[in-house]
């Protein structure tokens, strides 16, 4: 049975890293069963959004939900279950790609994922070899990641994310995969995953063509905020270059970068709210109320008994 595709939602997300504001009051809805593309300049916060969704970084403020479940309120077992339902390609193209096991060959990396998800030996071999072929990795099936070019390692990371047909897919900084020779294969592999799973996909990219061809929805992230969302086809209509993109969207963010003063003000409001709640349910007041109820009950019982006598 095909697993249901989960929606994803970030609400009121504020994140500070090394005393620098990265995200501020960010909200984003990723509809179930559809493809949402997040675009924005380098440093806008795209990778931080991905790290929140994948349970790698807890925000300072706000909630992160996948399939209606609170990622950061589910406990270790719940988080593990949420992660098992998603394929993930993390950003970066370093030799020590965090999406791969450096000690396993390309084939073994895919076989490991499939075995973890309960596939039998014959189906594991069929799926792994088919995915390696689809992404032009046949020739490196027996190679370790450190023996591959950067773009091949990146495609192998994508293969790991796709091979088990999980109902959610999160791809960060997919652009490294998209050299001219392999872009058609990557687009075809993503289309095949979508056809098989009807799953939910969130990807971050700078590639306008990819966003236009794949995306149902587009969210523009700038200065730690989502500044506009809508149909990818409509928002990118008439945009053919990065200069066009910057001209249309970056000027839309009149607020500028997040200010630490605003984040500190939010924290103070949170503290005041918690303080007010604590005052509302002050333990001393609760204790006094209980004692009062007991005393009144005893008095009523005494008077009732006296009347009966």
UniProtKB/TrEMBL annotation:
TM ranges: 284-308
UniProt cross-references to SUPFAM superfamilies, sorted A to Z: P-loop containing nucleoside triphosphate hydrolases
Signal peptide coordinates: none
Domain ABC transporter, chain residue ranges per copy: 8-248
GO molecular function, one term: ATP binding
Keywords, alphabetical: ATP-binding, Membrane, Nucleotide-binding, Transmembrane, Transmembrane helix
InterPro entries recorded: AAA+_ATPase (IPR003593), ABC_osmolyte_uptake_ATP-bind (IPR051921), ABC_transporter-like_ATP-bd (IPR003439), P-loop_NTPase (IPR027417)
Domain of life: Bacteria
Pfam families for the chain: ABC_tran
The protein, known as: Phospholipid/cholesterol/gamma-HCH transport system ATP-binding protein
The species this protein was found in: Actinomycetospora corticicola
């Amino acid at each position: 049975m095909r697993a249901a595709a989960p929606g994803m939602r970030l609400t009121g997300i504020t994140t500070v890293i090394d005393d620098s504001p990265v995200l501020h009051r960010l909200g984003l809805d990723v509809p179930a069963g559809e493809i949402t593309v997040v675009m924005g300049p380098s440093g806008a916060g795209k990778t931080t959004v991905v790290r929140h969704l994948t349970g790698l970084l807890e925000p300072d403020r706000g909630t992160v939900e996948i399939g209606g479940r609170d990622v950061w309120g589910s406990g270790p077992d719940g988080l593990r279950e949420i992660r098992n339902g998603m394929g993930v390609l993390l950003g970066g193209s370093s030799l020590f790609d965090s999406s791969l096991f450096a000690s396993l060959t390309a084939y073994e990396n895919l076989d490991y994922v499939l075995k973890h998800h309960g596939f039998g030996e014959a189906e594991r071999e069929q799926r792994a070899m088919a995915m390696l072929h689809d992404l032009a990795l046949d020739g490196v099936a027996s190679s370790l990641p450190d023996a591959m070019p950067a773009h091949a390692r990146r495609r192998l990371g994508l293969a790991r994310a796709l091979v088990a047909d999980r109902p959610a897919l999160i791809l960060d900084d997919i652009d490294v995969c998209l050299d001219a020779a392999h872009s058609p294969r990557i687009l075809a592999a993503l289309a095949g995953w979508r056809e098989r799973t009807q799953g939910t996909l969130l990807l971050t990219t700078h590639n306008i063509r990819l966003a236009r061809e794949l995306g149902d929805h587009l969210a523009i992230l700038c200065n730690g905020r989502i500044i506009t969302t809508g149909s990818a086809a409509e928002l990118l209509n008439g945009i053919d270059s990065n200069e066009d993109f910057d001209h249309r969207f970056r000027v839309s963010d009149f607020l500028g970068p997040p200010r630490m003063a605003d984040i500190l003000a939010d924290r103070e409001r949170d503290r005041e709210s918690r303080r007010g709640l604590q005052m509302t349910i002050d333990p001393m007041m609760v204790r006094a109320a209980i004692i009062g109820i007991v005393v009144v009950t005893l008095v009523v019982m005494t008077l009732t008994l006296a009347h009966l006598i």
